[in-house]
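Kindly go through the following sequence and its backbone structure tokens. Advise at your convenience whether the structure tokens fit the sequence:

___
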Amino acid sequence: MPRRALVERRPWLLGSLTAGLAFFALSETALAGLYLLGIKAAATGMLAIYALLRHRSTDSRWLVFFLALTMASDVAVEIDPRVAMLLGFGGLLAAINLFLHNRRAVLTPSQKGAAVALLALTPLIAIAITMGQDMFYASALYALTLGAMAALAWASHFSRYRVGLGAVLFLVAKLLTMAINSGRLPYDQASMAAWPLHYIGLFLIATGVIQTLRHELPES
């Protein structure tokens, strides 16, 4: 790739990392919520821009849709949780489409078992967390979709140590958030873990998918 293209595109990753670290460091300070919300959106938004610029294919577009809708969900959760869940659901469907189109041809029994466990256990855990809470049914449906996304990521031909692991970290972050919102876990301790897991998961998914696509479909 020409040096100019590297100069133009790689800084989006650095900017995303900077915003992700800044949000974590500033989330417990007196910084106004609107500024924090902008930093949070920038962390994921710049990952979407990175994916958009680094590869131009149908698969990369599904990745961009996933990241962009996740960013919108992260912002909307501070305004209306129902809208946030709807946007997040749309993002998961985009990721599911991406991973379905990139299924691994052959899976070992242990790999199949891990995928089935992610699909089955995620909604069961979510049901246990949100039982008797508002939006119980919506949360269960969201968790089923979340588990399907993680299972398909694990069963895709993308790197399990990047994309598969990233999907699992993202899943755990969402379950932690459910537990916080349901009062099952204390906000202070759990929220400190939720954002790093959320962001690192997205970072691993974005960079892992793009790396594989660039090796398979190199661009000049």
